[in-house]
Structures are given as structure tokens and as C-alpha cells.
Amino acid sequence: xxxxxxxxxxxxxITPAVKQELIDAGMNGLARLGQTGVIRQLxxxxxxxxxxxxxxxxxxxxxxxxxxxxEKSSKAEDYEAAKKVLQAAVDNKKPDSDVKAVAxxxxxxxxxxxxxxxxxxxGQTFEEAARALQAVNDDAAVDASWMAxxxxxxxxxxxxRFATAAVRILEGIKQxxxxxxxxxxxxxxxxxxxxxxSPEEALxxxxxxxxxxxxxxxxxxxxxxxxxxxxxQSKSEDRxxxxxxxxxxxxxxxxxxxxxxxxxxxxVTLHVVEAFAGVDPNVAMTYLSQAQSIAxxxxxxxxxxxxxxxxxMRHASKQDPAAEQExxxxxxxxxxxxxxxxxxxVTAARGADKALASQPQDRDALSLAHRIYSRLSARLGTSQxxxxxxxxxxxxxxxxxxxxxxxxxxxxxxxxxxALAGAYPQDKNYLRRAGTAQFKTGNFAAALPHWRTLVKGSxxxxxxxxxxxxxxxxxxxxxxxxxxxxxLTQYQVLYPDGGPxxxxxxxxxxxxxxxx
Length: 516
Description:
Number of strands: 0
Order of helices and strands: HHHHHHHHHHHHHHHHHHHHHHHHHHH
Distance between the termini: 87 Å
Number of helices: 27
Mean pLDDT: 89
Strand content: under 5%
CATH superfamily of the domain at 50-197: Tetratricopeptide repeat domain
Radius of gyration: 34 Å
């Protein structure tokens, strides 16, 4: 249908207005269907002109065609032609334009600027492309961010504000893509950039940009980022002056930014929250409220939204425990593997402990606590080496095993307790719990060594010694029946009454099973 509309536009006697309407309708439909190949074929076949009425779809498709040609020829004039069309496409995008198509067109436009060594424009356009690509979860977003840095780096010596922009981008890569190879290179380049430009020079350069300059908002944003970096790296005991400087710069940026990237607004606002948390909690709360209203406009997977919930969680810790738990749970649900996950899990675990204390038998409370502690234990590690050296890992593993036992997940409990008993082979508590869990799962061969160790390490004729002896013989009954009979006979000679009252029924059942 879409192709037919375009073809219909080229039949004889079609008026120019109808022709353009048919072309736009057909091309827009193909764009929504992702049929970029078909669009390019139609462009080649019909030589569709790009007049003033041509929309985003047509210009973006033609721009890609010209960009591909330029990439093959590497000629400056070809990149100029592609740049002209792609810039017109981006300028002509509409609210209902395909978001991913706009992001890709912006990315190609940035490459045109870069190939033509128009580096300031390249950096700004790569930044715009990175934000757009990240919004649609495109893997090219991190490449666009890196290219923004690569654009600013060569001109950073000419103007300190480009060094500031490059550092900000690298720090953003570290934060948004911590596992990416680019993140591993970031610190090296940051240190080099910081050597090339003093903070004072950069601050002066950024502050000198006037509102009439098209780069004014970018400069104000970078000024906030530089002031925040100075505040966060300061070793002074009193950082209130730096915090006030940051707040003043943030106020100017937030007032001037009528319709900017919301993630930038949120990050600047949160910088003020962090700076004033220990200086003036009332100021911090005011900006945190502003941050909340901005965060609601962003998708949940935006990293800046996670930043908001983290600072909101910290701010609520002493004033609003319920809000603290709400933000912690959001972070638990949305930031797996991030730098915030551990803090959120620890906070959520405290909340789960309180809930269990008030309703210890509630199945839902048990299940929630188990999910949280299981995540926390996995995050901290469960290897014997980690359990030996990290108290928090040991506590989390033990708690997870306890909750798993209460929920009837004996196999999970057994695995964790086996690791704990291996790390602490003389700890009677871990040995007993591991032996019990393995026994309940029917893994008698694994349970037997624990009970043997407890028999040897317990005071003879004590309740714990009799319990260990019972389990030792019961394990043997399932692994070495002859040896079990021999051990039970010896026990009966020493304790003809069947041992402690609490164990007599179990010993009696064991005698029946062994035919004694």
C-alpha cells in the first residue's frame, strides 16, 4: 500500500500538491514499518526531488544515501552534501517523527561534521545523538558519547570549556556504561585533559559565554558539572562556599533551560541536593522535590532517574523510613548490577527485618525478605574465600539460608550452609545447620561428615552430642547399613533407655528401620 502511494504520485497529470501528499504518506508509512531499504530503492528509481516541502522521512533517507556515498568516497564535497540534507532532516523533524530514525539521522549528521573536522559542531551533535540513541536503547549510544569526547579532545587546548565538556562526557560513560571498554579508558583520558586545562581557566571560559551564544546552555551545564566536580573533590572541611557557588550556577541553568534535555536538568538538580545534604537539609529537600517532578518525565531506565531515587533514599533515611524503603525497593527492582544496587539491598534488608519482626510467620514477608537477602548474598559473594574475609557476606549468606529453610527451600539452604561450614569448619552452628539441611534434602553422604565432626566436638552425653549421634547413625543407615547397625548397638549398650527424652522416639524409629 505504501509503495503504491509513492508510485501513484508519478502517474501523469498529478498536481504538485497531491504528488507531495502521496509521497509523504507513502514514505512515512514505510518509515514506520522500518522499510528503509524500500525507501532507498524508491529514491533511486523515481529520483524524488527534495523541495522545501520534503519532510523528515524523505530527507533522512536521502541523507543516509548521500552519507553512504561519502563514506565510500571519503570526499569532503560528498560529506558536505550529506551534511546539508541530514541537517535539514533533523531541523524538519516533527513530534510524531520516528524517534529512532531521528536519532540515527542525528548520528550520521555528527559523523559528517567530524569527517569535515568541524569538531565543535561534531561534539555537540554527537552528544545530541547519544541522548537520542540512549532513549531508544540503541547500543550505538555509547559510541556516540565516545565520539563526542573524541571531537572535543583535539580542541580542548584551544578553549578550556571543551576540556570540561570532554571530561563530563567521559565521566558519563563511566556512570552509564561501567562495563564497557570505553569506561576502562576514561580515567586515563580524564587525567590528561585535567592536566591540559586548570579548573580556574575552564570556569572563566565557561562563565564568559553569553546568553546570545547558541552554545550558552551547553556552557552553563558544563559550568555546573565543573563546579560539582570541584565540590566533590575538595578536601576542605567546610565546603559550603563551593556548594553555594554550585547552587547559584544551577539556578541560572535551570531558569534558562526552557526545554532542554530533562536528564541534564535532573543531574544538575541532584548535584545541588548532594552538595547541601550536609550543609542545609532544607535546601536539599527543596531541590529534591524539584528533582522528583523532573524524574517523572523520564523513562524508568534513564540512569538519572536511578540517581534521583538513590539520593531520595539517602535523604529519607532519618526522616521518613517508609519513603526510604519505597526508594530502596525501586532501586532493587530497577538497578541490578549498578553502583546503587548494594546500598539499596542493604537498606531494603533492614526494612525486611523490621517487617519480619512484627509478623514473623507472614508468608509474604518471609518471601520478600528471602528475595532481598538472596540478591544481597549473591551480590556480596558466597565463595569460601569471600565468606572467610567479609563479615557482611557471611551474615547475608547465613540469613538467606535461614529464610530459605523457613520457606522450605532446603536445597538452597544446604548449598549456602555447605559453603559456610567449609569456610568455618569448626563452627558448630554452621556444621549443625549444614548437616540438618543436607539431611532434610536426603543428601546423607554430604550430611554425615558434619554430624561426625559434631559428635567429636561436643561434650559427651550432652543433648547436642546425642542429637549429633542420632543423625550420624541415621545417615549411616542410608549409606552404610551394616556400620549403622553396629553404631546403634553400641549406643543402645551405653544408653539402654534410648537417650534423652526429646530423641527417644526418633531412636526407636531408627531401631525399627534397622530391624533392631
